Amino acid sequence: MILFCGPGVGALLFTSPFTLEAEFREGELPPGPTSFPIIGNILQIDVKDISKSPTKFSKLYGPVFTVYLGMKPTVVLHGYEAVKEALVDLGEEFAGRGSVPILDKVNKGIVFSNAKRWKEMRRFSLMTLRNFGMGKRNIEDRVQEEARCLVEELRKTNASPCDPTFILGCAPCNVICSIIFHNRFDYKDEDFLKLMEKFNENARLLSSPWLQVCNNFPGLMDYFPGIHMTFLKNMKEHQKSLHVNSPQDFIDCFLIKMEQETHLEFTLESLVIAVSDLFGAGTETTSTTLRYSLLLLLKHPEVAAKVQEEIERVIGRHRSPCMQDRSHMPYTDAVIHEIQRYIDLLPNNVPHAVTRDIKFRNYFIPKGTNIITSLTSVLHDEKEFPNPKVFDPGHFLDESGNFKKSDYFMPFSAGKRICVGEALTRMELFLFLTSILQNFKLQSLVEPKDLDITAVVNGFVSVPPSFQLCFIPV
């Protein structure tokens, strides 16, 4: 996910006369393009579409190769077999979290921590989230309530053209708020609006080319002004704004854990960071997927119509969708899977690192080496998904129209570092999308054939282009 460089240098990919295959000897790092002093291979990376670079390199060097992002080597794994072998078969050895300098400065929580801290924080967070049948309300109740609130907010648009970005960001953020603070917020609440503004800005900054340069050259961060400073400021302001003394759900559990345990991992600082992790991982990625979902359904109205037919047949108009409905809605389930496969939200995953010296496919990878796993190469595998660049729910349907699982479906990664919020995200995508399509017809402002569905930013996440639509009540 850190394969970036400044604008314009992508044109240099594979055109430099100095790009020669590095000499490889048994027992050393995997082969790869010869790197330049200091800057490594950064001039050979395609900034406009980062998912293309691993694919092009793999054609020259195979499914396992080394690139230098700055002066440090990074091993890239391309293709289902290599990714599965590392993340699943050798899960413990590849369970380290790779370095992302901009996030290392502000985050030691669930997502970007390592070793004992990561295991303690992940175990606690998973246990607490699973136990959020707390009181009389479980997580599904919370998501269903937010889905109803989302529908009401969309009704307020009065079928007028609107950009759905803000509203679709509020819904998953409020679900996290209800889990963390035992309270949801009105979409017009001033504090809630500030929180949303910071998340949206940080998501844009994380995928910008300049921030990728800073990640490759972390020394630059402390000396040069730029958007990375805004990102750090936003994160620190957000952490300061959290009221850790409020007796709330997740926070209350964490504070009790602090009283009971002597683990150095459980401190007020790590609480703030853990909560930030849950907000960051559970808000922006889900809202981006929802936004991309609507754009793809506008592009393919025949798919939206078939989903609505299934909703009418299974759920009807007079009750809210629930998770039990999903097993009776194979087409809708296939559409949601295909959306996640097609948009390829995290093209190169969050970086991993090896936890010890390891021999992998006869190559030697030293402990601590950053590992990039190309999720694009798995989600867009031509053998598993014919015509992978085409949006086709049939990729997840058998000949009888039943839902068909695929081991290649890895939008949440795989193995020990698989997304901690996978179950919640799956629930939100199903309940939010079915609730929207149960109540509205999606109307594009332009002809579907003229809609551009190409990601405008393909850095940390794949961000869809801005668009407007009308939510027509049915």
Automatic annotation (TrEMBL):
GO terms for cellular component: endoplasmic reticulum membrane. Its cofactor is heme. Transmembrane segments: none annotated. It is an enzyme of class 1 (oxidoreductase). This is unspecific monooxygenase. The keyword Coiled coil does not apply. Keywords: Endoplasmic reticulum, Heme, Iron, Membrane, Metal-binding, Microsome, Monooxygenase, Oxidoreductase. Its main location: endoplasmic reticulum. The keyword Heme applies. Its EC number is 1.14.14.1. Pfam families: p450 (PF00067). It is found in: Endoplasmic reticulum membrane; Microsome membrane. Belongs to the cytochrome P450 family. GO terms for biological process: organic acid metabolic process; xenobiotic metabolic process. It catalyses: an organic molecule + reduced [NADPH--hemoprotein reductase] + O2 = an alcohol + oxidized [NADPH--hemoprotein reductase] + H2O + H(+). It comes from the Eukaryota. One of its GO terms (molecular function) is iron ion binding. InterPro entries: Cyt_P450, Cyt_P450_CS, Cyt_P450_E_grp-I, Cyt_P450_sf, Cytochrome_P450_fam2.
